[in-house]
Specification:
Blueprint lengths: L6 E2 L15 E4 L12 E4 L5 E3 L5 H9 L19 E6 L10 E4 L1
Parallel strand pairs: 1-5
Antiparallel strand pairs: 2-3, 3-4, 5-6
C-alpha cells in the first residue's frame, strides 16, 4: 500500500508501478486449508530476499519502490475507516469502457 495515497499497488497501473514485475513473491511453505498462513519470501529486483515477517520490511519495500509503502495483507480495516482502493489504467483502445485514463476500484 502506498502510504501517501492509501492505494494498493499493482500491475493494473504499470505507469505508476513500473518495476512491479521485477519483484517475485512465494510462500515459504505451501498453504493448506485450515492452517496458519505461511510467511512469504519477496525477492527484490536486485536479488535481495526478504520475508513478510521481517521487522524492517516496510522500509525495505519503500526503498525498493522509491516511495513509502506498507505490505498488504495486514490487519483488516478499522470500522468506519475508508477501505483500501487500487488504480487501474485503461489504455487508449477502442471498445474499452474508458480510454487513456486511470480509474479507482
Amino acid at each position: 500500500m502506498d502510504r501517501s495515497t492509501g492505494k494498493i499497488g499493482g500491475a493494473k497501473n504499470p505507469r505508476k508501478w513500473g518495476n512491479f514485475f521485477d519483484f517475485r513473491a512465494a510462500y515459504l511453505e505451501s498453504p493448506e486449508a485450515g492452517a496458519k498462513m505461511s510467511p512469504v519470501r519477496i525477492t527484490l529486483p536486485d536479488g535481495t530476499a526478504v520475508t513478510s515477517g521481517q521487522g524492517d520490511l516496510e522500509q525495505v519495500l519503500s526503498r525498493a519502490f522509491g516511495r513509502k509503502r506498507r505490505p498488504g495483507g495486514g490487519a483488516p480495516p478499522v470500522p468506519g475507516s475508508p477501505a483500501a482502493t487500487a488504480e487501474e489504467y485503461w489504455p487508449d483502445m477502442a471498445g474499452l469502457d474508458y480510454q487513456d485514463t486511470v480509474t479507482d476500484f
